[in-house]
């Protein structure tokens, strides 16, 4: 009887450990679509949710479009109303996997990994492959990456009037520090 209870307890503990995810609700995403000689077109969202399953290397991230803040309020208004249409498309979602991820191999020195997944934005989905720098930090795991997308790939139209002031190529930077969170 004692052995049965012990085995059952070990199974429950193993299931609990295997379901542990690492989470950040304050990951940061910066995007820039500036062109030389014109006003900077750049926004920051510091409230992005980012989840990592350390057992599988699977990741997911969600950014609310209205969370992006610009230096110029009018740019923010145009971004939400005319370009990204935040009321109709309120979020961007990324789901993917870190190739060859092994939590035990991480140290304070960042290692290079490849992240492959899909970005869903403005009603469209595109494959993303990017290099990421991942390390252990005192509070968990730090992940940072940079990649570019084209606004036209997501049916985001740039009017002719501002085409010379706004790049179709959007550079995106992501930074997250993830801590343990039992689900």
Automatic annotation (TrEMBL):
Which domain of life does the UniProt lineage start with?
Bacteria
Q: Which InterPro entries match?
A: Lipid/polyisoprenoid-bd_YceI, TTHA0802/YceI-like_sf
- Which parts of the sequence belong to the Lipid/polyisoprenoid-binding YceI-like domain? 45-176
Organism field: Flavobacterium phragmitis
* Signal peptide limits: none
Do you know which Pfam families this protein is assigned to?
YceI (PF04264)
Protein name as it appears in the record:
YceI-like domain-containing protein
């Amino acid at each position: 009887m004692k052995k049965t209870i012990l085995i059952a307890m070990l199974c429950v503990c193993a299931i609990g450990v295997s379901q542990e995810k690492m989470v950040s609700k304050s990951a940061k995403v910066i995007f820039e679509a500036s062109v030389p000689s014109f006003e900077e077109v750049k926004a920051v969202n510091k409230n992005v949710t980012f989840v990592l399953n350390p057992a599988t290397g699977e990741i997911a991230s969600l950014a609310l479009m209205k969370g992006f803040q610009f230096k110029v309020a009018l740019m923010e208004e145009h971004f939400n109303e005319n370009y990204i249409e935040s009321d109709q498309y309120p979020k961007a979602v990324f789901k993917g996997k870190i190739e060859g991820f092994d939590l035990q191999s991480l140290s304070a020195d960042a290692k290079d990994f490849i992240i492959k997944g899909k970005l869903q934005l403005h009603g469209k989905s595109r494959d993303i492959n990017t290099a990421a720098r991942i390390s252990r930090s005192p509070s968990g795991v730090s992940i940072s990456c940079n990649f570019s997308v084209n606004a036209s790939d997501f049916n985001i139209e740039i009017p002719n009037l501002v085409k010379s002031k706004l790049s179709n190529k959007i550079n995106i930077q992501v930074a997250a520090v993830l801590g343990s969170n039992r689900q």
